[in-house]
Design brief:
This protein is mostly helical and 113 residues long. It is built from six helices and no strands. It is 70% helix and 0% strand. The relative contact order is 0.05.
């Protein structure tokens, strides 16, 4: 893994001295103020929603919902719940794929070479 990460530095850097500075920064030998990349640059509504979903998902709410699901008496209702769950997962997949496709700009990786 270390060889792969170090190899990526040479694809990213425009010159050998810049690659050396990247590697020094990766090893902790670079100085910086820490103000270049503060939390406000990364935290937006989508990230906040993902963090909230992660917090809720890690709470003991999910085992209780699983127990409630097992307590459903009729098979027809279980089938409807599973169909709804499947439809929700499919909708989530399509929405996440649309989100990823809408916000990406990936030029050809070897354009610089």
């Amino acid at each position: 893994m270390l060889a792969v990460v170090v190899g990526w530095v040479f694809f990213r850097a425009e010159s050998l001295p810049q690659a050396g500075r990247y590697l020094a920064a990766m090893a902790g030998f670079a100085s910086g103020t820490g103000l270049e990349h503060h939390v406000g640059l990364q935290l937006n509504a989508v990230v906040a929603l993902a963090l909230t979903a992660g917090i809720i998902g890690s709470a003991p709410i999910l085992p209780r919902l699983g127990q409630w699901r097992e307590d459903i008496a009729t098979i027809n209702l279980r089938v409807a719940v599973e169909a709804g769950r499947l439809a929700g997962l499919a909708l989530l997949l399509v929405a996440s794929a649309m989100q990823m496709a809408a916000g990406t700009y990936n030029p050809f990786i070897y354009f610089r070479f």
